[in-house]
Amino acid sequence: MSNTYRAIQLQRFADTFRAGATIVDLDLRQPGPGELLVRNHYAGVNGIFDTQIARNAVDYVKIALPTLTGVEALGTVEAVGDGVVGFAAGDAVVTTRFPGGYRQWNVAPEGHFAKVPSAAPEWLGLASTGVSASMALEHIGALRDGETVAISAAAGGLGHLIVQLALLRGCHVVAVCGGKTKSNFVKSLGAHRVIDYRSESVSDVLAAEYPDKLNVAIDTVSGGIFDAFLDNVAPHGRVVVGGAAADLEGQPEIVTQPRIAHKLYYKGASVRGFMNGLLAEHWPQARAKVFALYDAGKLKMVFDERKFIGLEGVYDAVEHLVSGQSMGKVIVDLRAPQS
Asked: Which pTM value belongs to this model?
């Protein structure tokens, strides 16, 4: 084992992740008391979060430069520090704690890790994005069995899992995505109505087919899709904001119209913000649930077809996700030969 390892470090604030981050060599140390030394095998990519971190635009994360980057990683325990209980060398573990992701090795407190059955990438996707899907839909969205659920970016890493979780609760699922390939993918998951925003107007479809009928609407896009969800929210419905990909360039559309209070008040409806990083205390329960569903064959974890290798591949993976072209969970294989 070498005395150094490689990691992606944010060295300057910039408009893009690539412009602000650099691969560096760092000293590798042994774990201290209560710590694990983990060799990372895969990293999960959160391109919008990464871009916003590069811009110092994530309110709840205080950035002091330089800082390491990445949130999600799965690997194996190589060594444990004094006092560690519940982990041993050889265990497969996952972390969803910033900045544990974009690095070959990670030394961190044992509380930053959760044990998983194996080092297969499916467990990374479930422990990260699967947990996020459950939290957005069931914790923030307060889903009830049989409700009507609308989901934007439904073919993405988060969206395709929300679709499945809603279907497992007997819900009627309205899925929004772009293009024939993504539409066919979401249909294959069982969505009842797929709206291809490239060939149909989301607002027109919802107004005609789901007027005031959306009990839960989960949006990670913003713009016209958010407006359409809000216009058609049901009495006591919940619109969950899980992102604003359309506004990523920092120039959100200026909208002049009545305040949303007028759309919410008479329906007793609400708009709720979802930020998974603020819900860590609920992760263990959600993780146990999605793991059990996967073990029972009730939940499918789908990965994007593009392959990204090594830390160098992280930059391309971030840009691929931000481009809107991805379908399923985007991950990077970090298992390149290491000295």
From this structure: 0.94
Virtual CA dihedral for 283, 115, 329, 241, nearest 10 degrees? Answer: 10
Residue 49 has which token pair?
């979060």
> What whole-number distance in Å separates Cα of residue 59 and Cα of residue 52?
10
Give the DSSP per-residue string, 31-43: --TTEEEEEEEEE
Classify the phi-psi angles of 165: left when phi > 0, otherwise alpha if psi is within -120 to 50, otherwise beta. alpha
Task: Answer for the pair 58, 115: CB distance below 8 angstroms, yes or no.
Answer: no
Amino acid 283: pLDDT: 96
List C-alpha distances in Å: 217 to 166, 225, 232, 239: 11, 10, 9, 5
Helix (H), strand (E) at residue 195: strand 193-196
The mean pLDDT of 284-295, rounded to a whole number, is 97
Collect all residues with Cβ–Cβ distance below 8 Å to 287 and sequence separation of at least 6: 114, 126, 127, 130, 131
**138-191 confidence digits (pLDDT tens):** 999 999 999 999 999 999 999 999 999 999 999 999 999 999 999 999 999 999
Distance separating alpha carbons of residues 77 and 30, to the nearest angstrom: 12
Which position has the token pair 């996707």?
125
What 3-state class would DSSP assign to 212? coil
Distance of CA 316 to CAs 2, 155, 301, Å?
Answer: 27, 20, 22
Residue 273 in this model has a pLDDT that exceeds 70: yes
